[in-house]
Structure to design on (427 residues):
């Protein structure tokens, strides 16, 4: 597969920013994600693998926490949860403002503005507090993929840079699919060349309405006498799964691989899928990822540039369980059955994996008799999770960067709010 690089340098010059953003999480996040996972998706069923059944036992070295951050909340707010951090140390997430609205926020972990919160604003509409589960990402160019409300009350996918502020990415209605007049951007790749998400029927927020998986691609056009980046929406392939009305693309890597999920009409089945780029820019081909038998809700949340994918599964009888998919060939068009990731002692009741960097470090959360904590695994030496060392009494992690900084949220301890933005760098 070809790395998408033809416009990286130009895009970096147009949208470069040293900021990152943060995502919101609270002690009930497992319940919120669990409720959403009551949508289901499909692929070939295969026997379960565990760490011991695939790998000769070579335990990864114990991690050492180098630094942890208590980033607090936006001034006057009550909670913040960080969802991603780029390789420059800019983190993004969501949190509330003094007026109670939920906004996309950013904060730098290093430099002269470290610890200072940035409100990315909106597309002109009011965003009620706690509007949905926060999921957004930031590229190494400073481009943030998010969503917001327009003045007429529609949810739209949005992007933000320090230079442009927040701007509207549009919906499928813009290219003639009139019913799909709302949209959601879930992720941008590290190079800032692709944004992915979905476009929905206007029947509530992105989790409640039938939607189509989408990708936004950039081009350079002259506007008002200057060269500008213009983002165009297009549908992703759903061949063979047309009976699934609920879709979202969750994440994308620098090779153009896109992961997402599909859910059936009665929300009884959720399946993880992958779109691989076709040669010569001819779009993307849908691939269903292998799933474990008799578990209706199986989802993927993160992909790295090695093509490794992480997520989680859940059913009425199986608690939330973190999973890992690894490619079987260089073409990345075949994947092994999901590998079950296990928790550390005292954290074995449930959890999921959300982020994976290019080193194979995996971030997520586990809970059990010892409480709930942000966790770390390795795709190279799969074994029980290790605690990531966030401040506070409880925590969870979302994404992490290639400098081994993971971000998320925590409560208790030094956090005097409902939930504070947190980060941890490990070795």
């Amino acid at each position: 597969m070809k790395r998408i690089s033809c416009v990286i340098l130009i895009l970096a010059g147009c949208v470069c920013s040293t900021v990152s953003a943060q995502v919101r999480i609270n002690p009930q996040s497992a319940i919120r994600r669990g409720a959403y996972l009551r949508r289901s998706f499909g692929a070939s069923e295969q026997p379960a693998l565990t760490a011991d059944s695939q790998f000769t036992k070579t335990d990864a070295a114990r991690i050492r926490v180098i630094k942890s951050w208590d980033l607090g909340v936006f001034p006057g707010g009550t909670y913040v949860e960080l969802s991603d951090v780029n390789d420059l140390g800019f983190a993004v997430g969501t949190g509330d403002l003094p007026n109670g609205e939920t906004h996309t926020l950013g904060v730098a972990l290093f430099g002269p503005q470290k610890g200072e919160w940035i409100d990315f604003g909106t597309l002109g509409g009011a965003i009620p507090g706690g509007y949905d589960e926060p999921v957004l990402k930031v590229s190494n160019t400073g481009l943030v993929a998010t969503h917001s409300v327009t003045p007429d009350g529609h949810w739209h996918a949005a992007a933000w840079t320090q230079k442009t502020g927040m701007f509207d990415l549009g919906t499928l209605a813009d290219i003639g699919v009139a019913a799909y007049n709302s949209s959601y951007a879930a992720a941008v790749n590290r190079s800032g060349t692709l944004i992915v998400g979905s476009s929905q029927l206007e029947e509530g927020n992105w989790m409640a309405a039938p939607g189509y998986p989408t990708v936004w691609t950039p081009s350079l056009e002259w506007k008002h006498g200057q060269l500008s980046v213009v983002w165009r929406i297009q549908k992703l392939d759903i061949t063979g799964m047309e009976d699934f009305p609920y879709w979202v693309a969750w994440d994308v890597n620098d090779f153009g691989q896109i992961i997402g999920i599909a859910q059936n009409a009665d929300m009884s089945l959720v399946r993880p899928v992958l779109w691989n780029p076709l040669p010569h820019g001819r779009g993307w081909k849908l691939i269903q990822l292998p799933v474990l038998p008799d578990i209706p809700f199986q989802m993927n949340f993160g992909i790295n540039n090695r093509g490794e994918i992480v997520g989680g599964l859940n059913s009425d009888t199986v608690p939330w369980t973190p999973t890992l998919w690894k490619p079987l060939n260089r073409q990345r068009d075949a994947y092994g059955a999901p590998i079950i990731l296990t928790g550390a002692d005292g954290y074995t009741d449930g959890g999921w994996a959300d982020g994976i960097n290019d080193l194979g470090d995996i971030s997520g959360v586990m809970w059990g008799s010892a409480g709930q904590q942000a966790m770390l695994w390795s795709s190279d030496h799969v074994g029980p999770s290790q605690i990531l060392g966030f401040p506070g009494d409880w925590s969870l992690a979302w994404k992490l960067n290639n400098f081994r900084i993971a971000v998320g949220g925590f409560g208790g301890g030094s956090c005097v709010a409902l939930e504070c933005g947190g980060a941890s760098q490990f070795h």
Q: What stands out?
A: The CA atoms of residues 259 and 274 lie 4 Å apart. The chain has one domain: 8-421. The helical segments are 8-15, 29-36, 51-54. The radius of gyration is 20 Å.
